[in-house]
Amino acid sequence: MKKRLLIAEDDLSLREGLIDLLEGEGYEVVAAQNGREAMDSWGQGHYALVLLDVMMPEKNGFVVCQEIRKTNPHIPVLFLTAKGEEVDQVVGLRLGGDDYVTKPFSGKVLLARIEALMRRCDQEASQPRKPLQGVLGFAGGEVDLGRYMYRRGKQEQSLTAREVKLLETFAANPGQVLDRNYLLNTVWGIEYYGTTRTLDQHIVQLRKKIEPKPHQPKFLLTVHGVGYRYEVG
After folding, report:
1. Would you say 27 and 115 are in contact if contact means Cβ atoms under 8 Å apart?
2. Domains and CATH numbers, the chain
3. What is the CB neighbour count within 10 angstroms for residue 53?
4. Residue 92 has pLDDT above 80, yes or no
């Protein structure tokens, strides 16, 4: 059975190019020209992956991602962002996107990212984990594994599934330097074809949620040229 992909892109030529590329690889493609159409299509079918342009009329890609995540927190979401728009990449990942590709991009790169994300999703589905539960002490606060929340005192921050996995990985290796490739393989999957920049941006967002002073981190420390270390304190 063909895997069905939902793509949302307002640029006609790019949208048609994506359809040709993906259908040529054997995917079934449902295409939308704006965010409203994307959500209409989302409610009418089941998909293996969602590909979202960031800047779209009606509803932008960020809003669409947020609404999709309310009903399906696990489906892979891949953003298309304009070259150099780092703020878009950061916001997209914070809102639950799994990865991003900057325009212009090659068809081979896009296909590799799509295949890697869906392969990871298939692997996770074939080896289901027990539902997360309990509390994990971290950085002077607590990670509520069942609710995907980080709590310090009376303040709470919501976490994405990938952020929880990152925190679990750091908590299991306190004081150890974890290189970027290890973190990518552990959290994103061994066949992930993205860049370490995706990891770095996730760390930036985690620091905003767990560090008292995100720009002067004391728990998630950068080890330049290598990776990151969780300092228990």
Report:
1. no
2. 4-126 (3.40.50.2300), 135-230 (1.10.10.10)
3. 26
4. no
